[in-house]
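Hi everyone, sorry if this is the wrong subforum. Our group has a chain we'd like a structural model of before ordering constructs, and none of us has done structure prediction before. Sequence below.
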Amino acid sequence: MIWFALAALIFLFIGFLILSRLPVCAAKEEFPPSIPGISLIIPARNEERNLPRLLGSLKTQTLLPDEIIVFDDNSEDTTARVAEEYGAQVITSSGLAKGWLGKPWSCYQGARKANGDLFIFLDADTFLESDGLKRMVETYMAGSGVISISPYHKIQRFHEVFSAFFNLMQLIGMRDISFSKGRQPKGMFGPCLIISREDYITSGGHKAVRGEVLEHYALADILKNHGIPIRLFSGKGSLNVRMYSEGWKELIQGWTKSFTLGAGQTPPRMMRLSVMWISGLLITPFFLIFSLFSHSTVGILFWSIIYILYIFQLFTQFLRVGNFPLWSVVFYPVILIFFLAIFSWALYRNIGDKRISWKGRNIH
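Answer:
Right subforum, don't worry. Here is the predicted structure as C-alpha cells:
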C-alpha cells in the first residue's frame, strides 16, 4: 500500500501541473479609443431553443456589434424565424457545397456576407454577460493574433453536472507541457473565435478547413503556419454556455460525439499525464473505503487527507469552468466513473468505420 500512497501523492502533483489556468477576459472602465466594426456570426442548425438566449443577451450589451448574422444551415425547425424576430440578419443555406461540412460552410458563408473588420464567431448555445462583448473585444485588442474563448458552463439541471470532467479534459487537451517561451496552444475552442478580417483572409479562414470535422483544431494549425498567434481565454465573467440541457440522451450523445472525434487531438505527453492524474483520483477513494472496512487508523487518516486534497484541487478547477455545485466535488468519484464510461464508449466508436448522428446529420 505504500507504493499506492506514493503514487497518489505524485499523481496529485501531476494534476496541479496539467490543469488549466486560463486567464479571463479583461475589463476596463473606458472604451478603447478606436473599435473596429464588429460582425458577429452565428452558425445555426436546429437552434430554435438556444437562439433566444444568445440573441437576447446581445441586446443588453454595453458594446453592441455592428451586425449580427445568423446562417441557417438547412434547419428543420423555426431557427430562421426566431433569428429574424430578434433582428438578426438571416442567411439561408441552399445546401452544402461538395467537400464541405456544415459548420465550416456556415461560418465561411457568414464571413462572406460580413461587413466588419472584426469577425466574432459564436456557437448558438452560448450567451453573454451584459459587458461580455466589451470584455472580449478589449481583450482581443490588447494583444495580437486571434483569441479563442472557452465558455463558462452555466449549470441549471441535475444531469448537466455530469459534464464536469468533460469540461476539464477539453482544457487539458489544449495544452502541451513545455518550458519553452512562446509555446502555442495545441488548438482552439470551437464555441468562440475572434479574428480580424485580414487574418481570416490571409489564413483562408473556414474555407481552408472546409472538410474538417474538428475545424477549430485544423484552423489553429493553419493560423500558426501563417505566423498568426493564438491566445486562449476562459469565458468566466464574459461568455457562458448551456450544453446538452435537454436531458441525459442529448448529454451522452453530445459528449460521445465530441470525444469520438477528438480522441486523437490530445498531445501524447498530456494524455499520459492525464491518465496518471485520473488514476490518482480513482485509487484514493478505493483505498479510503478499504481502510474504513479494515479499521486501519493510519490508513483512514492518510487517505482522508489525500481525498480532501483532491477535492480542493477539483473545487478550484470546477469553479473555473462552470458553476458546479459543491456536492459534485465531494462525490466526484460518481461523476468520474460516468466520464470514464462515456470516454470508453467513445474510444470504442473510434475503432473501425463509424458514423455519428448529430442534429439530423451523419458525421463520418
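For your construct planning: The two ends are 46 Å apart (CA to CA). The CA atoms of residues 54 and 237 lie 15 Å apart.
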